[in-house]
Amino acid sequence: MTARLAAPPMLDAEVRDARAWRRDALTPRDWLIPLSPRCLDELDAVTQQLRRDPLPPLVLTPEQFALGACAEVMRRVRDTLRTGVGLAVLDRVPVERYSVEENRALAWVLGSLLGRLVAQKWDGTMVYDVRDTGRQLEYGVRRSVTNLDLVFHTDAAWLDLPPELVGLYCINPAHEGGVSRFVSLVSVHNELARHHPTLLARLYRAFPWDRQAEHAPEDDKVTRRPVFQYDGRTFMACVNEKLVETGAELAAEPLDTEGREALAAMRALLDSPELWVEFTIERGQVQFINNRQFAHSRTDFTDASESHLKRHMIRLWTREEGRRSFHG
Predict the structure, then answer these.
(1) 262 near 199, Cβ under 8 Å?
(2) What average pLDDT is seen over the chain?
């Protein structure tokens, strides 16, 4: 007689706190956080010190500088991400004053005030440049290095320990397009529980995920994990339907009917305009999102013709658990 596997624990109560928002409940005032003149002076002082005594960004720590005002701002960002609406946008760093390497240093220092910075690629890349490289989309090429649109997703959804908080430091926005959208996966979960409880239960069971070639050459190309997880205390969501589709292809395992229906029901909610908010990030703004309870997307974009004006974001990941390596 074959033993039946116990059903995974599910979040079975509707969430009604600040994380469970809908579009009509938010305005930009809910996510915009101004940088005070004192904070801007502190950032200026960081660059002045590095001009006198250069160091690479990866060895910098907040303790090397006087950053009291910035630390207070980043505490507010952290609270907004973990217990609030899940989205915070610093407005703004005067990036035009600084070189690309100085901006990279400021992004690193601000991110270090938010949490423990971790690798964003298997090769150990800690600071990730988000820009159109001109590469064609193929196996192992992330859409983030193209100008193609990005569906609603969470970063590194296939990892056992995905990044908790994700930052984007905008040196240059796109010439046209590149609109950012954000949706609460807590609200999506609430809607699924109300209207599709059986399909919601399927999302708590494992799917195959494409690991996007971010692993040792001899490792499996696919991992298996659920979309939603709940340990009785903490809720976590990992979303990227395209990686589930390619994961199933790589594993030569067609998705079960219930799995396809569950993903379709979730996608319909993610694409519902009444659930998401949108804005276009501006030069010098720094966007942060809670990557475990909120998803983001981006429309396709057109770059400026001048190389120094092409879209360029510096991305950072934080995670407190595990090691600082990509897989944690």
Answers:
(1) yes
(2) 94
pLDDT per position as a tens digit, 133-190:
777 666 666 667 787 788 999 999 999 999 999 999 999 999 999 999 999 999 999 9
Phi-psi map region of 181: left, alpha, beta (phi>0 left; psi -120 to 50 alpha): beta
User: What sign for the dihedral angle of Cα 25, 28, 32, 36?
Assistant: negative
Sign of CA dihedral 260, 262, 263, 267: positive
3-state secondary structure 16-70: CCCCCCCHHHCCHHHCEEECCHHHHHHHHHHHHHHHHCCCCHHHCCHHHCCCHHH
Q: Are 285 and 89 in contact (CB under 8 A)?
A: yes
Which residue range(s) make up the domain with 98?
Answer: 30-318
Closest among 122, 137, 180 to 313, alpha carbons compared: 180
- 325 domain-assigned: no
- Spatial CA neighbour of 86 closest among 235, 304, 293, 317: 293
Q: 22 in a domain, yes or no? A: no
**At 63, which CATH number?**
3.60.130.10
Paired residues of 180 in beta bridges: 279, 298
Asked if residue 182 lies in contact with residue 292, where contact means CB atoms within 8 angstroms, the answer is no
Helix (H) or strand (E) holding 249: helix 241-251
Number of domains the chain contains? 1
Q: What single DSSP character describes residue 324? A: S
Residue 9 forms part of a structural domain: no
Asked if 129 contacts 314 with a C-beta cutoff of 8 angstroms, the reply is yes
CA distances to 47, 103, 112, 132, 324 from 57, rounded to whole Å, are 11, 9, 11, 23, 16
pLDDT of residue 2: 46
Q: Model pTM?
A: 0.94
Which pLDDT belongs to residue 138?
A: 67
Is position 78 within any domain? yes
Q: How confident is the model over 213-228, as pLDDT tens digits?
A: 999 999 999 999 999 9
Which tokens sit at 183? Answer: 């949706």
